[in-house]
Each structure stands twice: as structure tokens, then as C-alpha cells.
């Protein structure tokens, strides 16, 4: 009969310490889940950016223009905008702040998209005021001198929501009016 020698196995590392650590972590997590709501700890995350840094340069995308039911004229320059989302309640809309420089024809095109005309602009009427712009930390400054005109526009219903627009136009440079608008839908 051949002689068979049994090979000795290497001793296994004890798994008990690893299991104890794992159990401890799980128990700590379970305790935290039970205790956390009872002590009312709230974690507040500070805002990472201000509204001013959320200002976008350029013409709003077509989908955004459609959402706010307006048309920024082709060739608009110095365009910037800010979208302020609603608070999530059923009656809370979202806001678009928009600024651009255009031609008289472009101004007419923009106002037509809101259901208005340049004839509806009231001379000297600053509808969108500096306080409104400052409230969302935009760096825009509406001049207090020069030819200013403004209007309110009701935006037709789309689905179950209607909107409103406040427009102020600086026509000091008649060939290149500067438009400020606040649209809520």
C-alpha cells in the first residue's frame, strides 16, 4: 500500500475580528437611524452659488423661449437671462429675467410675441424696476436718465396656466434699444 501523506493546510486567519467590526458598523448605523429623527438634527447645506452667478449669457434656448411664450429676436446682442424656479407649490410659477439689445424691428418682434406692439409702450413708465432686478442679485442697472418706456403684458394661457410680463425699454439709443423683461408663467 502506498504511503499517502496528508498535507497540512495553512492555518486560516481568524474571521472573528472582521465579523465583529462589521457587526459594530451595522449596529451603529441602526442606532443612528433610530436616534436621528428623535433628536431633530437638521443638516443645513449652505448655498454654493448666488443668483448672480446663475445668470446666463446668450440667447435662451428655443425650449425656454417656448416655455415663457416669448421670442427673443434674431440678432439680439448683449443678451443675458436668469431663470428663477417656483417654490414647488401649485400656484407658484417660474420667472425669467431677460436683457438684450436689439433693433427697432427686433423690439417690435419681441413685443408682438407677448401680444403687444411698440405703440403700447408708455413713455417714462419704468415697469420693471431696479428693485425687482436687485432682488434676484442681477448686476443689471436700468438707467434713470434717457428715454425709458414700459408696459405690462398678459401672456395668453397655455394649457392651464397664464403668464405676465413686465417690460422696460431704454430707447436712449433709438437704433439699438435695450430691453429688460421679467416674465412669469
TrEMBL record:
Transmembrane ranges, per UniProt, are 16-39
What is the official name of this protein in its record?
Uncharacterized protein
Taxonomic superkingdom? Bacteria
Keywords of the record, alphabetical order, are:
Membrane, Transmembrane, Transmembrane helix
